[in-house]
Amino acid sequence: MNVPEDKLLRRARRRVRMKAGFGIHMSVYVLVNFGLAAINRIGGGTPWHLWPLAGWGVGLAIHGLVTLLSLRGEGLQQGWIERELQRLKRQGG
Question: Which end of the chain has fewer surrounding CB within 10 Å, N or C?
Answer without folding.
Answer: C
